[in-house]
Structures are given as structure tokens and as C-alpha cells.
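User: Is it possible to get a 3D structure for a protein together with its bound compound? The compound here is heme C. I've pasted both below.
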Amino acid sequence: MIQKFNKRNLLIAFLAVFALIQFKVIDKSPIEINPESDFLMIEQAPKEVVELIQTSCYDCHSNLTTYPWYSNIAPVSWWLKGHIDNGRGKLNFSEWDSYSLEESDTLKVKSANMIEKNWMPILTYKIIHKESRLSDEQRALLIGWLKK
Ligand code: HEC
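Assistant: Yes, that's possible. Here is the predicted structure of the complex:
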């Protein structure tokens, strides 16, 4: 009996905490986009490259993030936001004109390396977003273009 009672209390406590943390919503306010500052625009990427990079990288590395429904549910939302803030901080394709020539060259090489090693897009993202997975040919295409 006592054990049952404890389990129930635990469940109630869990639900209460879950309900409470929902008050801490993440900031998803849209950021103004200037198409002329965009990486793919500035670098005059061919159509295939545009589509691949937008699909596989832009959710975390641009200001054009598409937020899934579960981005409304804490603590998953905090975890997503961490990826986005961290990703944008390191590399933001929407603010490409804010990088020096040297920085943008480095970021292109780093991107090619990340794709080559299969580190980007990150694994958990690829599991959920099937469309972001890159085939070997698509990876070769991106690496070739990024390193040119
Ligand atoms: C789910 C979010 C997400 C996606 C999608 C994603 N990235 Fe990342 N990326 C990150 C995060 C988070 C980091 C920072 C990792 C760290 O250093 O802690 C990062 C780091 C990087 C870095 C390293 C930058 C530096 O200076 O260290 C490069 C380059 C990069 N990503 C390129 C890409 C490319 C190219 C794609 C698409 C093929 C991509 N990423 C897709 C989240 C993402």
C-alpha cells in the first residue's frame, strides 16, 4: 500500500514539474532576413547546392529556422534552442556578409570537413529529419563545391 502511495506521489510530482517547466518558453521570434546577406546568394550557389544546404543545415545555421511542433514542449524545446543558438553562433549562413574573407573561407572548409566526416547535420537531427540526410553523391557534390 505504502509503495503504491509513493508511486502516485512521484507521478504527481513529475507532472507538476513538467507543467511548471512549460512556462519557460524559448524565444522563436522571427529575425529579419536580408537575402543579400545570405551565403547561398553571395556565393552564387547552383540550385542543387542551395536545396541541399537549405534542407540539411539551415535549421541550425541560419535565421530561417523552421520550428517543429515539439519545439513548444519543454525540456525538448530547450535542447533544440541550444543547438540553434550554438549552431548560429559558430556559423550563420544568413549573416554571411558579416564574416571577413578569411573567416568565410575557413567556414567553408570547416563545413566541407564536417560533411566529409558525417558530423553535420548532427545525428539526432538526421534521425528525426529524414530529408536532411545526405547521400554519398550529395556529400561529394557539396564538398566539391565548398572547396572550390
Ligand atoms: C541540428 C542542428 C544542426 C544542423 C542541422 C547542422 N548543424 Fe552544424 N553545428 C551545430 C552545432 C550545435 C554546432 C556547434 C557544435 C559545437 O562545437 O559544440 C555546429 C557546428 C558546425 C560547424 C563548426 C563551426 C566551427 O567554427 O567550429 C560547422 C562548419 C557546421 N556546423 C556546418 C554544418 C553544415 C555544413 C551543416 C549541413 C550539412 C550543418 N552544420 C547542420 C548544429 C547543427
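The chain has a mean pLDDT of 96. Residues 56-57, 59-61, 83, 86-87, 90-91, 107, 110-111, 114-115, 120-122, 125 surround heme C (CB under 6 Å).
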